[in-house]
Automatic annotation (TrEMBL), chain A:
GO terms for biological process: transmembrane transport. Residues 109-299 form the ABC transmembrane type-1 domain. This is ABC transporter permease. It is a multi-pass membrane protein. It is found in: Cell membrane. PANTHER family: D,D-DIPEPTIDE TRANSPORT SYSTEM PERMEASE PROTEIN DDPC-RELATED, OLIGOPEPTIDE TRANSPORT SYSTEM PERMEASE PROTEIN APPC. The keyword Membrane applies. Residues 1-20 are annotated as: Disordered.
TrEMBL record, chain B:
This is Peptide ABC transporter permease. It comes from Arthrobacter pityocampae. Residues 95-324 form the ABC transmembrane type-1 domain. GO terms for biological process: transmembrane transport. It comes from the Bacteria. Belongs to the binding-protein-dependent transport system permease family. It holds the Pfam family BPD_transp_1_N. It is a multi-pass membrane protein. The chain crosses the membrane at residues 9-27, 101-121, 133-155, 197-217, 255-281, 301-320. InterPro entries: BPD_transp_1_N, MetI-like, MetI-like_sf. Signal peptide: none annotated.
Length: 313, 334
């Protein structure tokens, strides 16, 4: 148990906050957790995400049919698409291929969340690697990496994702990589600037005085203390990733069959039937909005909890 | 001022240079290579060989790159595979449509967003504040094309209030000079054509403007909240200045700086959003053209578009930076 703790960013305890002021210093993450638990916004976000995650994991149990199955093929004619409650066994109706909309929404949760999580993890990993190299090494490495990041940032992120997906070919993996790579510059820049702002801190000076190597200082002191904003951004990026995945599907990227259970694709193919069966667009659209809302609420509460500057007065 | 502009433009050079290298490598790594990219997927091996020789794809990479750069610098972006016309020409005819749409979207976003954010901050904690916070949260998380669907379904299909797609009623025999349809109508005195073109802009404009609107509301609200309790505002009150002067010259002006930055940063969102919005509303602008290019794997168009956007993006950001000095004299001194 060390007695000298580094002044973690946002770790200072508000003295007038009786619920948190325990008289002893709490750590950054415990403090953040206590704040999150009392923030209704965070709870709503966490409940939404928890529910969708549960649905995604339990999809094989919850969904009446498989994601690509077309159980109502015979009930769909070129002129009629049975809507919600119109035929037994399909509570949310059918789509034009004869797929069960409820099952497809459930399997879609799995597909969309998987794309969101994998692509954000890719972006986070790539961005952190570049950010640590730039912020930790400085000098020409820093300049070179940041110029590269500038180049990536000179193209709007959705267009960057489109270009990468076009290069990688038609597959779900291409979509994950495309969205992930388009997020790298954001993470790299954020981590670098946070690390730079920490570099002059007293605890770094202390570590240097103790004769610690640059690698130890960077990895064990600078990096852990710079992770707050990056984690916040990752949570917010999950929302963007889910939305961008839908947009890429809408633009015809991602491959697979038209009837694949994925929210963005369901929305895309609903366009032609907007006048006859608007629910085919509204249901997957609502799922995307609610999921993105959950991640955004959680991310913003996390930001408030970790950063005293944005905390509500 | 001129020195600042010159310095910023000079900084743009390495970025564009790097981007051109990436793009060059990008086209050469596309499925099937550049010849297939030019000819389409069903090209015969002979045709591929001919194109390879014609365009020099069999020569060393460095030679190829220099040739490509030489053409780019002369404004030669190549020929569209889908239409067979020069890429630059295709952009020129479609760009006004997108500019028109973007302007309407920005007017909507700023015109509604700044007052709403300001009102929310002034009535902090009241109903309008909570309402604007919730609405802006939803605004950020709605996929642009989904919002476009909803607007189209409600206003065009369900209630038939506004036209569902296109830029102008094709029965309207309008004269076009500038390709800005509203402006054309006003210039030629064909006011019905101008009005019709304007009606066609409303739904796509709202769809495109909603995300920037939501962001502007949030930034304005946060910024006004911060400024309205500043010491100089208290001093102004203590001096007995009129409330309207305090709000206009003290609070709003100082609160606008982050808002202007944000508006500039929305450009990327607007361009990405235009691709999606124009597709839903069959609006014949640069965004829809790009979507067709993605579908038809029209690489010269994609390549040209990305360079074009990068330059535009950088120029707009420069204008945004310069506009600071108009709003905030303190920036001018430095």
């Amino acid at each position: 148990m060390s007695t000298i703790l580094p002044p973690a960013p946002g770790g200072s305890v508000a003295p007038n906050d009786p619920a948190i002021d325990t008289g002893r210093g709490t750590g950054l993450w415990k403090d953040a957790y206590l704040r999150l638990r009392r923030n209704p916004q965070a709870i709503v976000g966490a409940v939404i995400i928890g529910l969708f995650l549960l649905v995604a994991i339990l999809a094989p149990i919850l969904a009446p049919y498989g994601g690509d199955e077309l159980p109502g093929r015979t009930a769909v004619t070129p002129t009629t698409i049975p809507g919600p409650g119109e035929i037994d066994g399909f509570p949310l109706g059918l789509d034009r291929f004869g797929g069960d909309v409820l099952s497809k929404l459930i399997w879609g949760a799995r597909a969309s969340l998987l794309i969101g999580v994998v692509s954000t993890a890719l972006g986070l990993a790539g961005g952190m690697l570049l950010g640590v190299l730039a912020g930790g090494l400085g000098g020409w490495v820093d300049s070179a990496i940041m110029r590269f990041v500038d180049i990536l940032l000179s193209v709007p992120s959705l267009l960057l994702a489109v270009s990468i997906a076009a290069m990688l070919g038609q597959s779900t993996y291409a979509i994950m990589i495309a969205i992930g790579v388009s997020q790298i510059p954001i993470f790299a820049r954020l981590l670098r600037s946070t690390m730079l702002s920490q570099r002059g801190a007293d605890y770094i000076l202390a570590a240097q005085t103790l004769g610690l190597s640059r690698r130890t200082i960077t990895m064990s002191h600078l990096l852990p203390n710079s992770m707050g904003p990056v984690i916040v951004q990752a949570t917010l990026s999950l929302a963007t990733a889910v939305i961008d995945a839908a947009a890429l599907a809408f633009l015809g990227l991602g491959g697979g069959l038209p009837q694949t259970a994925e929210w963005g694709r369901m929305l895309t193919y609903a366009q032609a039937e907007l006048g006859v069966a608007p629910q085919l667009a509204f249901l997957p659209g609502a799922c995307i909005v609610i999921t993105a809302l959950g991640f955004t609420l959680l991310g913003e509460s996390l930001r408030e909890a970790l950063d005293p500057k944005t905390r509500k007065k | 001022m001129l020195r600042v502009i010159g310095k910023r433009l000079a900084l743009l050079v390495p970025t564009l240079f790097g981007l051109s290298i990436l793009l060059f490598l990008w086209v050469r790594n596309l499925p099937g290579g550049p010849a297939t990219a030019l000819l389409g997927e069903k090209a015969t091996p002979e045709a591929v060989a001919r194109i390879n020789e014609l365009y020099g794809f069999d020569r060393p990479l460095i030679t190829q790159y220099l040739t490509y750069m030489g053409k780019l610098l002369q404004g030669d972006f190549g020929v569209s595979i889908n239409t067979g016309r020069p890429v630059l020409e295709e952009f020129a005819t479609r760009f006004p449509a997108t500019v028109e749409l973007t302007i309407i979207a920005l007017i909507f976003a700023v015109g509604v967003g700044v007052p709403l954010g300001y009102l929310a901050a002034r009535h902090n904690g009241r109903l309008i504040d909570h309402g604007s916070v919730v609405l802006s949260l939803i605004g950020i998380t709605v996929p642009v094309f989904f919002l476009a669907f909803i607007l189209k379904y409600l206003f065009a299909i369900q209630w038939s209030l506004l036209p569902p797609d296109g830029r102008q009623d094709p029965r309207m025999d309008a004269t076009h000079y500038t390709q800005f349809y509203v402006l054309d109508g006003v210039l030629t005195g064909e006011y019905d054509a101008a009005w019709d073109a304007f009606l066609h802009l409303i739904l796509p404009g709202i769809a495109l403007g909603t995300i920037p609107l939501a962001i502007i509301v949030r930034i304005t609200r946060a910024s006004v909240l911060e400024v309205q309790n500043a010491d100089y505002v208290r001093t102004a009150r203590a001096k007995g200045l009129r409330e309207s002067t305090i709000r206009g010259s003290f609070i709003l002006r100082n609160a606008m700086l982050p808002v202007v930055t944000t508006i500039g940063l929305q450009l990327g969102l607007l361009i990405s959003g235009a691709v999606l919005t124009e597709t839903v509303f069959a609006f014949n602008g640069i965004g829809r053209f790009l979507r067709d290019a993605i579908f038809g794997l029209d690489y010269p168009v994609l390549q040209g578009f990305i360079i074009f956007i990068a330059v535009l993006y950088a120029l707009i950001n420069l204008i945004v930076d310069l506009s600071y000095s108009v709003i905030d004299p303190r920036v001018r001194v430095q």
